[in-house]
Design a protein that fits this description.
Layout: E1 2-13, E2 16-19, E3 23-32, E4 38-67, E5 72-75, E6 79-89, E7 91-120, E8 125-128, E9 132-142, E10 145-151, E11 154-173
Parallel strand pairs: 1-4, 2-5, 3-6, 4-7, 5-8, 6-9, 7-10, 7-11
Length: about 180
Amino acid sequence: LVGTFNATTESYVDSLVSSDANVGISAKNEISTGDNGYQAIAGSAGVVGIGASVSNLDITGKVAAYLGSDATLSAGGNLDVNAELSVNSNPKTSSATVGGRAVGISSARTVISGEAFAGMLDGAKLEKANNANVKAHLTGKTNVYSVASSGGLAAITANVAKVDVTAKVTSEIGTGCTV
């Protein structure tokens, strides 16, 4: 079982905006395989039994909220720039093998790559605001389950569970910005 999830969310202002109230620029992205997980199940039986289950899951998420290089913004209230990425993954594998000679293999792997960016790009202008709040958040939760079992006169079992996570979270005001 192989799964690939790619999601990008972007929200920005790159022109003249004037408001007597609060101004919000928000981007939010939630990627989830669900609480019941992403499952691969295998079973085999015989004189010679070989069973294998594999679950590979690749998740890439990007979220950005910002004032662009050509933006000029005036807010009578607050300016809130928020970028939020949330990843929840639960891959599961199960393998059961029975035989005179039995081999059971189970492998679950998850690779998560996430980026969250909130800010003002080089040259953006904030002419007026009571407060300017720039926030980027990235949260994640992963549970990887791998179960293999085998039974017989000669039985071998192997389990592999692996998670790789790469995260980048940035909140910044670029060079040449007017605040």
